[in-house]
Amino acid sequence: NSMPRIVYFVALLSVLSSSWAFTMPPSSRGALPLKNAARESKTSRSAAVESGDRVLVIGGTGGVGQLTVGKLQGRGGFDVRTTSRSKSRGEEVIADSGVNVFELDLLSEDTTALEAAMDGVAGVVISVGTTAFPTARWKGGNTPKAIDEEAVKRIASVAAKVDTMKKMVMVTSVGVDRTGEMPFLILNLFGVLDAKRSGEQAVASAAAQGGFDYAVIRPGRLVGGPFTNLDVAKLLQVEGGAENGVSIEKGDSLLGDCKRDACAEAVVQSLINEDCKNLEYSIISTEEKALTESQWTEVFQKL
User: Fold this and answer.
1) pTM to 2 decimal places
2) What is the pLDDT of residue 244?
3) Of 87, 92, 152, 208, which sits 20 to 30 A from 44 (CA to CA)?
4) Residues 6+ apart with CB under 8 A from 193
5) What Å distances lie between residue 175 and 16, 67, 213, CA to CA?
């Protein structure tokens, strides 16, 4: 039976690519090249997403996506919508009649469904991805280049034309600027970090073109439920500690694990905080207490 061998192979590579107990030097290549253009857009309608606004979470059935939808709903006042390849499956996973689920095939070059989902949105969250190494999830062309690069470029292109857009937040990964260094050299064997980097650049370009703000969040290895990916964190049910504290640095310089719940909170804070403007930052979990709203503001101001 080849399946156990495949699982073992993926698990081994995941261990190699996420064993971040050692220290690596910060990268000096953390800034997106289009950052200044986004900041200086003459038609900027930059603002924090606020109560009453419509927010679309693309990838809302994934681990971070589910938690982001739940946190937005928990705050109340937002018109939350999300996407799923299957509308019925999406509604089953989200299990909240207050969330409008749109059927969307990220592999489709037809943007009609995407345009409908983005109608009237003020905020868009991109939390999509596939496995870094070939697995059954790549079936049908669900590869890093197709999802993290090409699909994100389509999303960004449509978003740039949405007049109501205030802010776009994208979740990628640490290592996008360190692909020549271990352990990211291994993680990027099939181009996942290159694809994510291209997606980041597309989002920055769309923000500059559309006159809205953006944020790129680069978490460490995602741990803690919901477990939706085939990796060691899922196989071993790695929870990542009891607290939701985080360490945040500008660019791409951190190493370590990041709880999905902590990452989702970063997504929400990036959306609603007016001091999060055209930022790219890396984030990992700590055993400290979770940041308060005012502490998040201080963090964003320092970045």
Assistant:
1) 0.84
2) 85
3) 152
4) 173, 175, 176, 179, 184, 187
5) 14, 23, 23
